[in-house]
Amino acid sequence: MITIKNLHASIDGKEILKGLNLEVKAGEVHAIMGPNGAGKSTLASVLAGREEYEITEGSVDFDGQDLLELSTEDRAREGLFLAFQYPIEIPGVSNINFLRTSLNEIRDYKGEEQISAKDFMALVREKSALVELDAKLASRSVNEGFSGGEKKRNEIFQMAMLNPKLSILDETDSGLDIDALRIVANGVNKLKSPENATIVITHYQRLLDYIVPDVVHVLYNGKIVKSGPKELALELEEKGYDWIKAEVDAQ
Amino acid sequence: MGYTENELAKDLENQEYKFGFVTNIDSDKAPKGLDESIIRFISAKKNEPEWMLEYRLKAFSIWKEMVEPSWAHVHYEKPDFQEITYYSAPKQTKKYESWDDVDPEMKATMAKLGISLEEQQRLTGTNVAVDFVMDSVSVATSFKAKLAELGIIFCSFSEAVQEHPELVRKYMGSVVPMTDNFYAALNCAVFTDGSFCYIPKGVKCPMELSTYFRINEGGTGQFERTLVVADQGSYVSYLEGCTAPQRDENQLHAAVVELIALDDAEIKYSTVQNWYPGDKEGKGGVFNFVTKRGMCERNAKISWTQVETGSAVTWKYPSCILKGDNSVGEFYSVAVTNNFQQADTGTKMVHLGRNTKSTIISKGISAGKSQNSYRGLVQIHKNASNARNFSQCDSLLMTDECGAHTFPYIECKNSSAKIEHEATTSKIGEDQIFYCLQRGISEEKAISLIVNGYCKEVLNQLPMEFAVEAQKLLAISLEGSVG
After folding, report:
1. Contact between A1 and A165 (Cβ < 8 Å)
2. How far apart are CA B150 and CA B205, in angstroms?
3. CB contact, 8 Å: A98 with chain B?
4. How many domains does chain A have?
5. Residue B19 above 80 pLDDT?
6. CATH number at residue A225
7. pLDDT for residue B93
8. Which chain B residues contact residue A91 at CB under 8 A?
9. Is B112 a residue whose pLDDT tops 50?
């Protein structure tokens, strides 16, 4: 699905990613954990195509395509989805209008017909139920006046609507209470299939109780420094990151 | 790749004016320049009664003593009033009895403007009645007979002078007196045509009434008047659209619009103004110096909605005089400026009666090197107890080189009044654009979505068909030629 090789990225001349390697195959869920400032959110931003970051070295293959050559919108249309850590508010634009525009742009890119209003509304009903999103939120302005939990649920709702190949969840658990966490995780689990993959970026092990990863990676100082099975997350929870830092710094 | 400020700015520069064509129709013009003989010429051409000529001459003598106002936040070379042609009419002067009689060139013009009457009749049935004013003359008014059944008068201003002089004499100048300001006085002296509308007592006009203004001839000024009278308990929704060909010289448009809402009446007046804004170097374009004002009697309501995307310089303040108790005034505005356009626009809400209410929602969008100003006055007079005003003025900046300015004036002479003013200025969010891009939405569509969202409160006030047109116009004004 996605193969990242020796990725270096910097912002304002400061290098954040320093030779990151990662491979995620279809059907897999990978968790990326790490201390503050390790580069987790930078990785998400770089993959999504945020302009402020400069890629100085490395390659990213996304389903046989050079991801770094694609524009931000074409990455999305090719099936890369980023669930934002801080979802953006767009006053005056209804969620429905936003999603329909999005869905149709993606369909247009793929040479498919525009979705009919009827099919679209049926899809909205089906997918909003998945994340227990109040139907009223679907017709409100994008993220405007949403609570923290509603914003995150709305991200997963959009993900469900767009049905991406690769989803990157950037700290989706931050600011969620336990019920919201369960709902969001349920949504993600239900969307899992052998054809798609998920990268879960998180600070805490908590989310991984609900979304069970196939592989857990530790990102530290711009690189993946350790990978292991889901038990690694528990170990990190228990022991913190200091032992990993010590291990890396000793090398 | 994605969006950068510079790319956006470049995009914006490349926008094209869609309505810049010229129609080849012979026209009947007055010699250029302005003196008493020109005014007599216009009046004679229109076969006007003596009182109308006298009115014009009086206005002309007043105008000669006035100086052009310079307080607005706009800079331009003052027009040379002797270089303007004050009367230009498409030559075919016979009256159109039906749509079939209209000159095919003219029909083609209307079709290009997207206002084919045939189309409208076919598609919308009886939703919109249109009066089409090209240069100075009203050329086609539709649905007249149907409206007449309800006692509604909807015709060109010239026709009203001939057919309904009692109404014209009673109301013309009652809201905007000829002494009001420099451009209003000029208009009173040289106005050539416009629309007139009268809704009788208790009648709710069943369709939107619409006037479409078009400047075609070079070197001409357009001076039209609109007079809408809503008698007691009546209702009318009135639309106005404007375009002009692309020309290097500046053209002057100095109109006067007067609305009279008698007791319990309601007038909704919507404008989509898309006069030629000049090219990207700031050459050419229409000077849009317009006086619009409405008078509300008891329990009456006047609502102005405007989407201003055109003109090189705009100077316009649709206002309400809330004379009657419990009367309501509303002003909803979107003003877009791009390249070197300048707009100084806003409203005046004059509260005279008790329990009067006014709402002002103004959304300015500045792009390129343009300057966009909101200027508003809320005036609460001594007797206007329990008057209430809410104003919200938002500005959205698209580039680093444009400007947004707000000049709100408040004068309050009654301590029971409640006045609220909110204002925001923001730059179009890169985060918002990135969010849209990440959902597969192209940059152009993203900007269009965000801008339309920003203007929603105003666009929602427009009748359906007009709102769609306004949205498209916003997209064109801000995104360069799409596709």
Report:
1. yes
2. 8
3. yes
4. 1
5. no
6. 3.40.50.300
7. 44
8. 453-454
9. yes
Task: Look up the domain containing A19 and give its range.
Answer: 2-250
Number of CB pairs < 8 Å for A and B? 86
Give the residue carrying structure tokens 């742009």.
A105
Best CA proximity match to B149, nearest among B95, B207, B196, B228? B207
Distance of CA B52 to the CA centre of its chain: 25
Alpha-helical runs (H) found in B192-348: none
Q: What chain A residue is nearest to B442 in terms of C-alpha separation?
A: A73
Contacts A88 to B, Cβ<8 Å: 429, 431-432, 434-435
CB B342 within 8 A of CB B74: yes
| Pairwise CB contact (< 8 Å): A93 & B449 | yes
Q: How far is B4 from chain A (nearest CA, A)?
A: 9
- Domain assignment present for residue B342? The answer is yes
**What is the rounded CA–CA span in Å between residue B445 and residue B236?**
35
8 Å CB contact of A77 and B440:
yes
Q: Look at chain B and report how many structural domains it folds into.
A: 1
| Dist CA A222 CA A225 (whole Å) | 9
Q: Where are the beta strands (DSSP E) in B66-179?
A: 88-90, 128-134, 137-141, 153-156
Q: Which residues of chain A make contact with B454, given a CB cutoff of 8 A?
A: 91-92
d(Cα A73, Cα B264) in Å, to the nearest integer? 53
Quote the ipTM score. Answer: 0.95
- The DSSP code for B372 is E
| Strand bridging mode B153-156 / B193-199 | antiparallel
E strand map for B107-255:
128-134, 137-141, 153-156, 193-199, 208-214, 224-230, 235-243, 250-253
Whether A162 contacts chain B with CB within 8 A:
yes
Largest CA distance in chain B: 68
**Which has more confidence, A195 or B252?**
A195
In a domain, B173, yes or no: yes
Chain A nearest-CA distance from B440, in A, is 4
The C-alpha atoms of residue B203 and residue B144 are separated, in whole angstroms, by 16
Report CB contact under 8 Å: A51, B2.
yes
Query: Would you say residue B483 lies in a domain?
Result: no
pLDDT, one tens digit per residue, over A63-78 is 999 999 999 999 999 9
Is the Cβ pair A49, B1 closer than 8 Å? yes
Q: Do B437 and A76 touch (CB under 8 A)?
A: yes
Q: Does residue A68 sit at the B interface (CB-CB below 8 Å)?
A: no
How far is the C-alpha of B252 from the C-alpha of A196, rounded, in Å? 62
pTM assigned to the model: 0.78
In the predicted structure, residue B278 carries a pLDDT above the cut 70:
yes
What range does the domain containing B421 cover? 5-478
